[in-house]
Write a structure and sequence with these properties.
Number of strands: 7
Strand content: 15-25%
Structural class: alpha/beta
Largest sheet: 5 strands, mixed
Shape: elongated
Strand order of the largest sheet: 5-4-3-7-6
């Protein structure tokens, strides 16, 4: 997970809060589970102890990865972005050139992606295909069922 992660202020704060919770509440819960398993006797044959230690290792790995993401993050200010091209934080209205269907997506970092909220990652196939495009340009997106062409109809920041 190297490279710069572009986040909104809200996305940064959400990740920071999640990290703080893992460091405090998460670590306390794992420590309590380890202590409880220790009380049950012989550690060499204690499956609960092994599971608790594995959970501790996974938690520490998540904490480490999230710290890397936050340390490489840059908070974007929407007012500073160029709206002539599709960039991170752009709201893009695209039209499928075959079906004529339109859909609006917001391009965000991977950690903020939420398809239900129409927020797609700039690292997704559609996100990669749209980056740098201008209104009127065609973005060809490679999908498992073949290429799909989308026309960029509108670019905005809401």
């Amino acid at each position: 997970m190297s490279g710069i992660n572009y986040l909104t202020k809200e996305g940064y704060e959400k990740l920071k809060a999640e990290l703080d919770e893992m460091k405090t509440k998460g670590r306390k819960e794992v420590a309590a589970a380890i202590a409880e398993a220790r009380e049950k006797g012989d550690l060499s044959e204690n499956a609960e102890y092994d599971a608790a230690k594995d959970a501790q290792g996974m938690l520490e790995l998540k904490i480490s990865e999230m710290e890397k993401v936050l340390s490489n993050s840059r908070i974007l200010d929407a007012s500073q972005l160029d709206m002539s091209k599709v960039t991170v934080l752009s709201n893009v209205l695209i039209k499928n050139t075959k079906t004529g269907k339109t859909v609006k997506y917001t391009l965000v970092s991977e950690s903020e992606a939420d398809l239900k909220a129409k927020k797609i990652s700039v690292n997704s196939p559609i996100g990669k295909g749209l980056l740098g495009k201008e209104v009127g340009e065609i973005a060809t997106i490679e999908t498992p069922r073949g290429n799909i062409d989308f026309e960029v109809m509108k670019i905005s920041i809401d």
